[in-house]
């Protein structure tokens, strides 16, 4: 029975990576460089059920990149309000250096996303009232593609919580070699 739910989770994540479905936006948690948790929204860009992996894109200069390099353990959470379902995920993030994979993702992005990588200042730079950085950053001498990061999270745990009926359902799946070990939990 947990297998049916696992298939449903991967179906929903697969749909979320290609369309505006509830889990298209996920919240990504990293450990900050000072150890404090850091949380932000990302767009799910790719779901590979076979590898048990999810991908998102970001700016190579964004703080989360340093955080992932420092500690690749991350957690993600999504919420489907119409279904009253929460999906918690955790795993290890990797910043891709596979040029073929990077290029394939880059070419799949829309113009309005690509333009973000032309932003002159690193995400999080402090700006004055005129939008100029208070501290001079690195000169912008790299092409936007070089500032593009493809991050893939190899999941090691998925957790589904369904509060849609009086009988709440909570189920976890832990990676176990090439398969997933499912278990029902008290909600
Ligand atoms: C709806 C929405 C979608 C977002 N998607 C992304 C994304 O896919 N990648 C990303 O780096 N930041 C995305 N952001 C911005 C992040 O939430 C965050 O503010 C930014 O990446 C800086 O995070 P950092 O300082 O922790 O690196 C999104 C924000 C919103 C509100």
Could you give a short description of this structure?
The chain has a single domain, classed as Roll (Pnp Oxidase, Chain A). The protein is 20% helix and 39% strand.
Task: Please tell me about this protein's structure.
With 187 residues, this protein is an alpha+beta fold. The protein contains four helices and nine strands; from the N terminus they run αββββαββααβββ. A hairpin with a 5-residue loop joins β1 and β2 (37-43). The longest helix is centred in the first third of the chain and has 15 residues, at 2-16. Bound molecules: flavin mononucleotide. Flavin mononucleotide is lined by residues 25, 38, 40-43, 56-58, 62-64, 123-124.
User: What's the Cα radius of gyration?
Assistant: 18 Å
The CATH level-2 architecture is identified as Roll
Query: What would you call the structural class?
Result: alpha+beta
Strand content: 35-45%
The portion of residues assigned to helices is 10-25%
CATH top level?
Answer: Mainly Beta
């Amino acid at each position: 029975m947990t297998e049916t739910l696992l298939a449903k989770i991967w179906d929903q994540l697969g749909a979320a990576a290609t369309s505006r479905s509830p889990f298209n936006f996920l919240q990504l948690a990293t450990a900050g460089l000072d150890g404090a948790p850091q949380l932000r929204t990302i767009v799910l860009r790719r779901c590979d059920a076979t590898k048990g992996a999810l991908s998102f894109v970001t700016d190579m200069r964004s703080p989360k990149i340093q955080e992932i390099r420092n500690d690749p353990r991350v957690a993600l959470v999504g919420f489907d309000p119409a279904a009253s379902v929460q999906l918690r995920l955790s795993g290890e993030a990797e910043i891709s250096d596979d040029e073929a994979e990077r290029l394939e993702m880059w070419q799949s992005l829309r113009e309005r996303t690509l333009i973000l990588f032309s932003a002159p200042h690193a995400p999080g730079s402090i700006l004055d009232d005129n939008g100029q950085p208070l501290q001079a950053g690195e000169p912008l001498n790299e092409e936007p593609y070089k500032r593009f990061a493809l991050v893939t999270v190899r999941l090691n745990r998925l957790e589904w919580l369904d509060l849609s009926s009086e009988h709440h359902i909570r189920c976890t799946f832990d990676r176990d070699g090439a398969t997933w070990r499912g278990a029902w939990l008290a909600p």
